[in-house]
Write a structure and sequence with these properties.
The protein is α+β, with helices and mostly antiparallel strands. The protein folds into three domains: about 10-150, no CATH class; about 160-255, Rossmann fold; about 260-340, Sandwich (Immunoglobulin-like), CATH 2.60.40. The chain is built from seven helices and 20 strands. Helix 4 links the parallel strand 10 and strand 11. Helix 4 (about 170-180) packs across helix 7. The longest helix is centred in the middle third of the chain and has 13 residues, at about 170-180. It is globular, with a radius of gyration of 22 Å. The termini are far apart. The mean pLDDT is about 90.
């Protein structure tokens, strides 16, 4: 293999949760991704819906075991020195599929090689390998320093909480329950007057109901600013729970632009324009309220897209009245109002 070194780091990432047109849902997961030569390794694995073992909701003892495995201080969990790098977001079963690789020492270096998709104890590189991915040679000191921070108590990505602001708690109860269902903590408050600064700093986003006035919003923003809280403010576009959940997921997804698969979304007239940075599966869903204030949901598109901007037709029934489009790809969510 090449003697050239790759850089190794860890970066916060998320698998965005949300509700599906068939009534199911996907769970929100915060985790740390492996960054190789400045690029998340997950981006090299086309459209994969998976998370690393370094997740924020993993108990400390299990997280430590995962880290020590990556540091080669414990036996590999799979035959042939193979370690799980990405697995199912919803369970730990190998049968759901996982990306694995051989991790080994070579002198003072650490090498990741022979990447494969694996659903049982044995990896078939010829059938399920990832040609062109790796091998990667890391300097052991850089590799170890990045992982040992987790053993010293550094969190494996933030646990996200959301504060819902509105005059009527009952009107926000459904949204709070939906967020909790997908794994995002949610609290309801009339304002932030009695919320301590240290608690404000635990929130990643604040959602304003449509009834909140601009002076009230300004007071909430000032409270978060005074607490030094890095929070994203979300104005609920409509009283449609799956839509606002998608807005929250968009707000919580803080990955830099170069780490994103889904990079652009616009809906004008009867056309949706969606831009992706790498090959990935994209799902487009339209939401609207009819004249009786009932939620109408239409699946617009579900398929794999190549890098670039794609124009997808929007059926007239999906865009009648005030309507919105939600785009989902592995990791990220974007929301756009239909205009024109």
């Amino acid at each position: 293999m090449s003697a050239q070194y790759a850089t190794f780091a860890l970066a916060p990432a998320a698998r965005a949760g949300g509700f599906l047109p068939d009534g199911g849902f996907e769970v929100h997961r915060d985790f740390l991704d492996f960054v190789v030569d400045g690029r998340p390794l997950l981006l090299l694995l086309s459209g994969l819906d998976a998370v690393s073992p370094l997740a924020s909701d993993v108990p400390p003892a299990i997280l430590a075991r995962q880290v020590r495995g990556l540091l080669l201080e414990a036996d590999a969990p799979l035959p042939g020195g193979r370690h799980v790098l990405y697995g199912c977001p919803d369970c730990e079963e190998l049968g759901c599929g996982a990306v694995t690789a051989v991790i080994e020492r070579r002198g003072n270096d650490v090498v990741w090689r022979d990447f494969a998709w694996q659903t049982d104890e044995t990896a078939d590189l010829e059938l399920n390998g990832y040609p062109g991915t790796g091998p990667f040679r890391f300097r052991a000191d850089e590799y170890r320093a990045a992982l040992e921070r987790l053993l010293d108590g550094a969190a494996a990505g933030p646990r996200r909480r959301v504060l819902l602001i509105g005059a009527r708690a009952t009107a926000l109860a459904g949204l709070a329950a939906a967020l909790r269902t997908i794994g995002v903590g949610a609290d309801i408050a009339r304002d932030t007057a009695a919320v301590p600064a240290e608690e404000l700093r635990t929130y990643g986003a604040v959602v304003f109901a449509g009834t909140v006035t601009e002076p009230e919003r300004a007071a909430v923003r000032a409270a978060f600013g005074g607490a030094g809280a890095d929070v994203v403010c979300v104005d609920a576009l409509a009283d449609v729970v799956p839509l606002v959940v998608a807005q929250v997921e968009q707000a919580l997804y803080r990955a830099p632009a170069e780490h994103r698969r889904l990079t652009g979304l616009a809906a004008i007239g009867r056309t949706v324009s969606v831009t992706v940075a790498s090959v990935c599966r994209v799902r487009l869903v339209a939401h609207r309220l009819d004249r009786l204030h009932r939620t109408r949901t239409h699946e617009v598109f579900d398929g794999t897209l190549e890098p670039g901007t794609h124009r997808i037709p929007l059926d007239g029934s999906a865009a009648r009245g005030r309507s919105f489009v939600v785009a989902r790809a592995a990791g990220g969510v974007l929301v756009a109002e239909v205009t024109g």
